[in-house]
Amino acid sequence: MSPRLYIDNAASQPLRPEAQEAMARAADLLNPAGQYASGRNARRALEDAREQIAELLGADPAEVIFTGSGTEADNIAVQGLAFGSKAHRGATVIASSDIEHPAVMEAVDWLTSGPMGFGFRRLLLPVDATSRVLAQQWIRAHGTTNAQPADIALLTCMWANNETGALQPVHELAQFAREHGIPFHTDAVQAVGHIPVDFHALGASTLAASAHKFGGPKSTGILLARRDADILSPVRGGGQERKLRSGTVNVQGAVGSAAALASAIKEMEQATATQTAARERLRAAVESIEGAHIWTPREHSLPGHLHVSFPGAEGDSLIMLLDAAGVDASTGSACSAGVNRASHVLTAMGVPVDVARGALRLTIGADITNEQVDYLAGILPRVVEQARAAGMA
Ligand code: PLP
């Protein structure tokens, strides 16, 4: 087997050669706002990247905003749409679920229960045991909740969950939002580059993506924002990027993102086939381990995710043992990395804390080999046994 198996692609994917080459070509570009030759050169490269991304994601170039990360794109959308709705419509309810990534969840918490007293309150979207938001149930109930559509400042739902990989009913939610004039944001950080994404077909107000999740550079986010989206951005400054994300634009990052996205989309079909086959073989290996729980649904999920729990084992022990065996994996929960805490996604699904603490997220790359799958499937039972023997912290 090759020296190490990297199976944490949902955390960050290796830089694609196409992105690396495009970024090397763009390395010397200067400030795209400059009113002189070097500025024009940088601007041309930036606008080419914007056009390419727009075309690949079903958006207009003017709707593509480059940001400093997926987290920043989420924050501009969540805070900006909420502020816009409050300022111009007096709406103060934010509807979101408990399975969002901290990039959205913390922003919603900040607005609804943070120390600043922004005056928003939260309406919870229900989630089922497979980590899917119950859109129809919520839509049917909206008339009987104490928030009417006119009160809703923002409806937000991720496209795919970063832990379980479960795809969310974003089309149903976007349609409901559109019919009622509610701004709708989707955190598509795990979806873009992995499944087909069409911004106009979805009809959301905003969508967040992050280049390093599809083989682009780190700290380069993309926010798609409809022109009529009422966003009062929390990022204030020189007014770049439609005044939504002030700050000198990272042209090299934009160019790398466009190249990576083009490559990811070109290879998507093949990648999906490879990942699905590997995932199902790993699923069978996990199923054979006593007491194992598998959280990733077989249907309606990202092809490369396999999120599991082994009760009696600590997630961090599993990761350390795998690391020692040459495998890079994670528990999958951003906030619990390095801290023995149960994942908020699993607890939102109703999973007991002791079961949730034995979580392991395997996220498969498109270049995985049969030999690597066999190796991982072969060592897993022993790793689980050793982690169980080590006990819970
Ligand atoms: N949203 C989701 C669903 C994610 O998985 C992540 C990263 O793990 C983010 C947002 C944050 O993206 P970034 O690392 O670019 O800030």
Please characterize this protein's 3D structure.
This protein is of the alpha/beta class and 393 residues long. The chain has two domains: 5-13 and 268-392, Aspartate Aminotransferase, domain 1; 17-262, Type I PLP-dependent aspartate aminotransferase-like (Major domain) (Aspartate Aminotransferase, domain 2). 40% of the residues lie in helices and 12% in strands. It has helices at 17-25, 37-56, 70-89, 102-113, 135-141, 170-179, 199-202, 251-266, 268-287, 315-324, 344-348, 353-356, 370-390; strands at residues 5-6, 64-67, 93-97, 121-125, 152-156, 184-187, 206-210, 221-225, 293-294, 305-309, 327-328, 359-363. Helix 9 (268-287) runs parallel beside helix 13 (370-390). The radius of gyration is 21 Å and the shape is globular. The mean pLDDT is 95. Residues 69-71, 74, 101, 103, 158, 162, 187, 189-190, 210, 221, 334 line the site of pyridoxal-5'-phosphate. This is Cysteine desulfurase. Belongs to the class-V pyridoxal-phosphate-dependent aminotransferase family. NifS/IscS subfamily. Pfam families: Aminotran_5. InterPro entries: Aminotrans_V_dom (IPR000192), Cysteine_dSase (IPR016454), PyrdxlP-dep_Trfase (IPR015424), PyrdxlP-dep_Trfase_major (IPR015421), PyrdxlP-dep_Trfase_small (IPR015422).
Q: CATH class of the largest domain, please? A: Alpha Beta
Strand fraction equals 5-15%
Write down how many β-strands occur, each being a DSSP E stretch of 2 or more residues. Answer: 12
Q: CATH-wise, what's the superfamily of the largest domain?
A: Type I PLP-dependent aspartate aminotransferase-like (Major domain)
How far the N terminus sits from the C terminus, by CA atoms, comes to 33 Å
Low-pLDDT ranges: none
Query: In percent, how helical is the residue content?
Result: 40-55%
What would CATH call the architecture of the largest domain?
3-Layer(aba) Sandwich
Count of DSSP helices? 13
What's the alpha carbon Rg, rounded to whole Å? 21 Å
Family: Belongs to the class-V pyridoxal-phosphate-dependent aminotransferase family. NifS/IscS subfamily.
Catalytic activity: (sulfur carrier)-H + L-cysteine = (sulfur carrier)-SH + L-alanine
Protein name: Cysteine desulfurase
Keywords: Iron, Iron-sulfur, Metal-binding, Pyridoxal phosphate, Transferase
